[in-house]
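Q: What structure does this chain adopt?
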Amino acid sequence: MHTIQTKTLQDLEFPTVLQQLSVRCHTEMGKKLVMGIKPISDANALHELLGQTSEYLSSFISENRIPNHGFDAIERELKLLKIENTTLELSGFQKIAKLCTTVTAHKKFFKKFREYYPLLFEITEAIATNTEVVDQIGTVVDRFGEVKNNASNELANIRHRINGVKGKISKSFSSALVMYQNSGYLDDIRESVVENRRVLAVKAMYRKKIKGSVMGSSKTGSIVYIEPEATFRHSRELNNLEFEEKEEIQRILNQLTALIKPHAPLLSEYQEFLVHIDITAAKAKYASDINAILPKFSESKTLFLRDAYHPLLYLTNKLSDQKTHPQTIELHEENRIIVISGPNAGGKSITLKTIGLLQVMLQSGLLIPVHERSSVCLFDTILTDIGDNQSIENHLSTYSYRLKNMNYFLRKCNENTLFLIDEFGTGSDPELGGALAEAFLEVFYERRAYGVITTHYSNLKLLANELPHISNANMLFDGKTLEPTFQLVLGQAGSSFTFEVAQKNGIPFSLINRAKKKIERGKVRFDATIAKLQKERSKMAQTGSRLQREESKAREESERMEKLNAKIKAKLENYQELYDHDQRMIQLGNRVNTVADKYFQDKKKRVLVSELIRIVEVENSKRKKKSANQAKHERDKKEKVAQEVQKEVKVIRRKKKIRKKKDEAQEKNKPLPVFREGDRVRIFEGKAVGTIDKLEQNKAVINYGLFTTNIGVEQLELVERKE
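A:
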């Protein structure tokens, strides 16, 4: 494959994608390298990168999450290791140890889950395992980044002596402090710290009374800071020991640096591996954010992008909670070039950029936001002419620049080229520019190049209808509202809706008619026909969509009814079996009852036994001999039927309760009637009807003839209103 031009990447806003990708990197090296990603010329290397990213993406929904790959760069340490007689700092050793530990963790993980992540396992397996570096650093540096006491015998001895001297310093200072405090020579603050040493805060008038080294005085001169003589001697000894400790640590670090130096190439390889994992993880996170996948690669030269989204537009709309319209487009041997037409602001340019950007992303090792049934292929060259490219520096107009660009296209265009041109042929006289654009398109067609162009020129739409391997397409436009639907439809040219849009935007009708008269009548009729066909297509698409929804709804309803029918049939069969069984039991019970009644009359046991045996034999003759399993199955079946009946009964009872509660609630919420004296009423759920004799303060006196009662009106219901 050839290298794709930087201009093409800029036209398609690929640097913006890389910027968004770099934000998702953990390491500074990863962020820096991501910005340099470009389309890959080696197809095998590209397939490996895409496969690795796809594997990493799958880990997000797996329980086996890939270990954390964060690390601190060791670029400075690697440079120092190349220089003779240099020593690494303690922080450098810590970074190297962490780097090695992280790589080892990844190697163990991918070895354990090699079946889930075969491609990632391959790159870890290619790296040599090394535990020696970590072990060597671990013998010298502790987890806090300090040199261990046992890093050498000499260091252990020096630090033991240092601790002893520090004890003596503390003891001697405390003794002097108590003695001079009791003598009244010290200020109220008693002591202070000067140059990291404890000193006595002596009143200036008594400074000659105290033996020791003067370390300074206060700003006012009223206090003199003195280190006691005994403490001073021990401090000098401590300084000597600390110097010896520093020299011994330097010697140990020199020795450790020399041991690590031979492993510098491997450490560099480790760092490159983790940077690669960081970039792969960032690609996977970006793919997750834009719902991207690894589509299938077609064996033939076929590009089929189904439900393709522009990633930058998708993320922007996602943040503002707006819908992004996907596009479906297909290029293959029998349909190599597509001419998209339609009104401005209908989505032509976005469709063009979506195709180009997704192709560039794919060829740069990034997953793309398309449907899983999409298929892709690779192109050696991707050529773009998008936007207004006036060049002030080179004194080029838009049209001059576009002609220069077309000349470059003519040199590079072949069967492995994808070209994308926005507003093809514009920038000059419409008639002449359209003719030249038509000639260019014929050359691209003859060279079997693949491409997508957007245009308003009718001659290019007609050419697309005439040539067998070019097709028209249009961005749907709602003829009634004159609003774009952002849907790409293949197979038909689109109208520019020039006059319709002008009318919608308030341009006077008389002016539009005058404009129509200034152009050829045939062109107006041609554009009007296209507009009419587009409106009809839009209407048919809406009707088809509605019918599809209705068909789907009818199918779902039919399936639901079939399931319900089968369920009812099964229940009826179960009820029939239960009914038949109950009828048999009733008949058997009647016969037994007759025999029992006869025995009650004549008390003949022999007749009773013979009759019972006969009844049992008759019943057994009706039964088939069943195995234990069959008998158990029948019992289970009967129990199941009984349980279902019980469930149904419970459901009916529950429904009755709910209905009753609803009725009660409705009665409660029902507005109370306005009662008047003389109305015939009765108490709720009562039978006796009485007459209201008197009403006062929501209380009513009810006359039942023989007696009267006093009751709240909320407990009454109206039977008959007084005339």
